[in-house]
Specification:
Layout: H1 2-6, H2 10-13, E1 22-25, E2 31-35, E3 41-45, E4 50-55, E5 83-84, E6 112-120, E7 130-139, H3 145-150, E8 155-163, E9 167-176, E10 182-188, E11 191-193, E12 200-203, E13 209-212, E14 218-221, E15 226-227, E16 232-236, E17 244-248, E18 251-259, E19 263-268, H4 270-275, E20 289-303, E21 308-317
Antiparallel strand pairs: 1-2, 2-3, 3-4, 5-10, 6-7, 7-8, 8-9, 9-21, 10-20, 11-20, 12-15, 12-17, 13-14, 13-16, 16-19, 17-18, 18-21, 19-20
This protein binds 6-O-phosphono-beta-D-glucopyranose (BG6).
Length: 319
């Protein structure tokens, strides 16, 4: 026995393989899940390329997903990170997008999974620093004919979900593949999970002007940190350069930074609106969520043929 233990075996001489991120598909191919060796995970539904779960290494869910959310492709997902494109809300006065449903068609279209890659964050860094990147695509070619009829432009969308140990980055690239210009808006409609909305403060928006959608679309200025005490639906424009920081009971929970996305929408439906949404459950789930939604939604991004627009958010967790 002793002799065997001391003898170098073929196994012992093989350098140990560093653990790799695991990327798997659900049996019905409706969703893809990536898990880092350290336990962090993200789950993306191909319907809408909707991120429906993001967990830290200890298994704690960071996004809010309604218990009544439809995940079968029959309606936009209530929760997670739905993608808003090419119109935010509805735009009855904007001829190109007037016929589109609320928040456009990206969140209700089935996307293609384009591939994964993983990398170390620094050369020679430990396996614990691995990250994983998932790419998804949607183009006019694979759009449902009914959606194509409502917005007859040739376009391409690439959505990248990038999971790191302490952050999630989601980035959208829009390209105009048509021979005429088109206008579009984009928004990353992120439902952040919180323990108690009454203890939440959102900072980083002070001094920014916003359209208050629950007060006759009046334009106001954010004077200090924002607390949520009732139905809230605000479009900050421009939102300023500062990161948006969400604290709970004074402790930092999320830091949201933006790349090339000038607006932030803050939304919480509160009691009545939540109760009025069939796919919002439980009814008091509004206490456990706040939407902080980076986007480009005031005015339009006009893309000339061949042009591209890219915008991204990074949500960093505080330990
Ligand atoms: O119910 P939907 O279409 O998912 O939209 C939810 C909310 O999305 C927010 O982005 C809008 O500012 C709100 O006005 C809207 O109510």
């Amino acid at each position: 026995m002793v002799e065997r233990a001391n003898r170098p075996s073929a196994l012992a001489s093989t350098p140990a393989l560093a653990p790799q991120p695991q990327v798997t598909f659900s049996d019905d191919n409706s969703r893809v899940t990536a898990v880092l060796p350290t336990g962090e995970s993200v789950e993306v539904l191909l319907y809408g390329a909707t991120v429906i779960s993001w967990k830290s290494g200890d298994g704690t869910e960071k996004l809010w997903l309604s218990e009544a959310a439809k995940l079968d492709g029959t309606r936009a997902v209530r929760g997670g990170i739905p993608l808003v494109f090419p119109v935010f809300g509805t735009a009855p006065d904007h001829a190109q997008t007037a016929k589109l449903p609320q928040h456009g068609f990206a969140r209700t279209s089935r996307w293609e999974f384009l591939g994964k890659s993983s990398s170390e964050s620094a050369p020679g860094s430990a396996a614990a620093d691995l990250s994983v990147k998932l790419d998804f695509g949607l183009s006019s070619a694979n759009l449902d004919p009914s959606a194509r009829a409502l917005w007859p432009f040739q376009f391409g969308l690439i959505y990248t979900v990038y999971l790191n140990r302490d952050s999630l980055t989601t980035s959208l690239v829009v390209t105009n593949d048509d021979d005429k210009p088109f206008d579009c808006q984009v928004l990353l409609h992120t439902y952040l999970r919180v323990k108690d909305i009454t203890a939440v403060e959102i900072s980083g928006l002070a001094g920014a002007s916003y359209v208050d959608k629950v007060d006759g679309a009046k334009t106001k200025t954010q004077s200090s940190a924002l607390t949520i005490t009732g139905e809230t639906d605000r479009v900050y424009s421009p939102a300023g350069d500062a990161a948006v920081i969400v604290t709970e009971g004074g402790a930092k929970v999320f830091t949201v930074t933006r790349d090339n996305l000038g607006n932030v929408v803050v939304w919480n439906p509160w009691t009545d609106k939540a109760a009025g949404m069939a796919d919002f459950a439980p009814n008091d789930g509004f206490k456990n969520m706040v939407c902080v939604e980076p986007g480009s939604v005031s005015g339009w991004q006009t893309l000339e043929p061949g042009d591209a627009f890219e915008g991204a958010q990074t949500i960093t967790l505080s330990s």
